[in-house]
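Reviewer 2 asked us to include a model.

Predict the structure of this chain.
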Amino acid sequence: MNNALNLIGRILLAALFLPAGLSKLSGFEGTVGYITSVGLPLASVAAAAAIAVEILGSIALIVGFQTRIAAAVLAVFTVVASVFFHAFWVAAPEQAFVQQLMFFKNMGVIGGLLVLASSGAGAWSIDAKKAAQ
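Predicted model (structure tokens):
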């Protein structure tokens, strides 16, 4: 049962990041504009990096390849994204509650990613197949 739950957990975590990465890819200019709007430098580079992290990290989680690294990278990415894009402490009063919800939802996701980074992908993964060789 643990391996099945681990796989389901990996897929569900990836379900947050993969559609977001694909959306950023198809709407690249909008993503660059959004990044620029919060004052981050090198918005095009940041957008490309976000796309790579979200898409490649999601695929790595799903198949269980370098899972600990992928989960750690996604966790760091999510911390940075949360601080810059869900800064409820500086949001307008009418947006603060929603931004706070998004921020703390992301903290929960980070928690799941850190558990995955510490425990690994389980037996149903490329990592386990490589370890068995």
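The CA atoms of residues 17 and 93 lie 28 Å apart. The chain has six helices and no strands. We have added this to the supplementary material.
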